[in-house]
Amino acid sequence: MTTSSATTETVLALLRSAPQSEEQLEQLALEAKTLPPGELVYLVETRPATESAILFRVLDKDAALAVFEALPATHQAELISGLRTQQVADIIGDLDPDDRASLLDELPASVAERLMHGLDLDERAMTTAVLGYPRHAIGRYMSPEVLPLTPGMSVREALAHVRTHAEQAETIYLLPVVDPSRVLLGVVGLRRLLLAEEEALVGDLAHAAVAAEATDDREDAARRFFAAELLAMPIVDGEQRLVGILTVDDAVAILDRENHEDSARTSGTEPLDRAYLSTPILRVVRSRIVWLLVLAISAILTVHVLEIFEDRLDQVVILALFIPLLTGTGGNTGNQAATTVTRALAVGEVRLRDLPRVVWRELRIGAVLGAVLGSLGLLVSGLVYGLAIGTVMGLTLLSICTMAAIVGGLMPLIAKKVGADPAVFSNPFISTFCDATGLIIYFTIATAVLGL
């Protein structure tokens, strides 16, 4: 067992004993101090609420702040209730305004108001500015702690300004250039300033900025951020005045959260807002049960289709053997198309106006896939069960693959059009739709070919 693992086991044993005396708490603090930050985050995030609060309480200020910032906002809110008032005040005061706003969103109004009153006037003003934007707006994730320059500054003046105010800025690697009304004129990198002549003007060194409006959707802004390969992105208001800056760590956090949500919903569940091991059982059940009920109700449609064609199954029982193959193929083909188009939508490769092109493209893709699988189905099932059954299988696979590819490509675009999450329309609903529709196609072809 490694030293870190042994220390972790010691910390866990101390936590389970519910330490109360000063000696026990001091021992816990000494053991915890030797653990790396990642291990501390794991312990605080996965232990029961009481144990998490005890462990967090014995951490020194720097370690506590690092652990607290690594936790999801919902977990931060739950942790606060078990902490001392002064420790809470110190931590809240040291958070960045955007992180503080996310935390305040999760707290009861009375607690949030009390914490806001504990901030100094500048911190309170910056936090209030961030809280003024909708939850899904990029303004909610920007930092108002930005260090702007003016175009008339010389490089010498600009560098002196940066040295004086660097501690108050979120980042100094990319510096916005603004006019007296704070309208964004461009940006200049710190590297370029350092390499330029001291008498050169900032306005001559600045270049056009890739910026986002504070009300833009967070995911769209974050994807533009990475598409442009930025370290930081200025955020402006509707009149192009500088209001904040988005840094790479916040952009990464946004996309991580969006990808987590898409992954969960694609699998037919709602994303958990905290660590799996510390999430209450009933909360996990709630995240899954709604989807299971929706899908169970949707599956009734498939059962109804089988009931309609029950007489055909009675005449040719062999048809029942191929149902799992056909429904599985249709669902998989549709989900492949939906996943591809959903990602293309997310990164801006496909837009709503491209709907006809997507449909035409997926029709051809589905037809080629169907032709390959259909030929294989015709050959194998024809050799085993006869030419007639082989023909049914070949034509059905061709038709189902074509239909499923079109539906899979179409659903994310429809979701985007109506303002829903494209991931919600992916695997669960597409599979159910393709199952029912595929069976109708199957039995219709069987009826025509076999003369049922």
From TrEMBL:
PROSITE patterns: CBS
GO CC term, one of those recorded: plasma membrane
Domain CBS as annotated: residue spans: 142-205
Membrane topology annotation: Multi-pass membrane protein
Keyword field: CBS domain, Cell membrane, Magnesium, Membrane, Metal-binding, Transmembrane, Transmembrane helix, Transport
Any Pfam family: MgtE
Entry's localization field: Cell membrane; Membrane
Main location: membrane
One MF term in the entry's GO annotations: metal ion binding
SMART domains per UniProt: CBS, MgtE_N
Subunit structure of this chain's protein: Homodimer.
Protein name as catalogued: Magnesium transporter MgtE
Taxonomic source organism: Brachybacterium ginsengisoli
Lineage of the organism: Bacteria, Bacillati, Actinomycetota, Actinomycetes, Micrococcales
